Amino acid sequence: MDTTLMEYTAEDLIAHNLQRSGILVAKPRFDQEGADLLAFLQVKDGAKFCRIQCKGRSLLQSTTAHVEVPKKYVTGGFVLFLFIETGHKEKTLLYCFTADSIREKWTSQEDQFSLSISETKLTSSFAEFEFNDDKIVLIRSIIERSDTSEEFRQIIHGSLNVTLDPVTLKATGTVGDPPVES
User: Fold this and answer.
1) pTM for the predicted model, two decimal places
2) Between the CA of residue 73 and those of 50, 103, 105, 123, 173, what are the distances in Å?
């Protein structure tokens, strides 16, 4: 099932809630390594951030849904928000999972974590992950403790195309720590 519209709705809802709580939100022009949004406390030299992945799922056509996230995304500065549409207009179902909670509570498979969603779970096992003021405090703490260089390694990739007659060169790469010389 295509969840594109649901993902956009979730992203807007999440950005709105974070900004109302005083967390600055930037929308990268890419979706790399789970970075739908970047969350900051301030914008200045050396600013720290966390990566926000936005997921939206519906229980309108099915009694269950699933979310998967690659294990390589789940670093200290990663937060996953999950918006669930159940058709109940009186309550917005928004959940917040940190890297620790994903590692501890989600099902671990070979190269990804997965979460099974049902309406029963929303009122029982998901209750501790409901987005609220405590989650804002937690996200602020994650941003303050984040390892900026590690998070940049997760999201910054580059490519280079150079054409010189009659030679054509192509290169791709990732940004990381320089190699250690022996």
Assistant:
1) 0.76
2) 12, 11, 16, 27, 18
